[in-house]
Amino acid sequence: MKQLVLQNKKIFYNTCGKGKPVMLVHGFAEDNSIWDYQVEKLQEEFYLITPDLPGCGKSEHNEDWSCIEDYAAIIKTIADAEIKGSEKYEGGKNGFTLVGHSMGGYITLAFAERYPEALNGFGLFHSTAYTDDDAKKQSRRKGIEFIKSNGAIPFLKTTIPNLFSEKTKKERPQLVEGLIELSLDFSAGSLIQYYEAMIQRPDRTSVLRSFEQPVFFIMGKNDGAVPLRSTLPQCYLPAVSDICILQHSGHMGMWEEKEKSTIFLRDFLRRL
Prior knowledge:
An eight-stranded mixed β-sheet has the order 1-2-4-3-5-6-7-8, with helices on both faces. It is an alpha/beta fold. The chain is 43% helix and 19% strand. The protein has helices at residues 36-42, 68-82, 103-114, 134-150, 152-159, 166-171, 173-182, 188-200, 205-210, 228-231, 253-256, 258-271, and strands spanning 2-6, 9-17, 20-25, 46-51, 96-101, 119-125, 215-220, 241-246.
């Protein structure tokens, strides 16, 4: 594991593999281990970078990093350290690929808005360019109050099962327990900071319209966190879109349908 020091805080990330550079950004209440299966299957063809966002995994929390744009700037610093200066970091066909799950997708969009020349494509994994509607914002605010009153762990034990499809919860409850176990070290402050950042983020559908390189979307048919009905329309906005709808997944397709989602991701990366 490698590290950078930003504002006196340590940010950790893993690298492995060889080939075209790809960065995989995890979502809310996750760390980079969420991508372990994808990394295992893709490392023979691609140079993979998987960061721990601030306050996640081994990376340190910083109260000053309070918006999605701050996290996109951290991703840029990691990309500069690992890729810039090589022939692989010139944008267009020679840029790198950024893939974000859920909140990681919001960060990916903010990155693509600010640094489009660095990318040869990007992917949204159970994520959306639309801003939260009023109901979603209210739900997140209730979550913040719950965390303040009850702590991080009770909140996560309550919410994490809702990220999986009913089929997954019934047939593979160990996946739900695995994600809960992964999240037990999260602090209340980190979770609240991320929720507030998501509430504040703007609509970024303009990024999808203006981005000139390919974009992929992986969506879950049974996703309650980012419902298919509200995200499918965004897939028609980019000039070039690849779309995969996972029929048996909720919000955690990289675990629920890991083989199918990884094959789709690999095929997209090969075509860039």
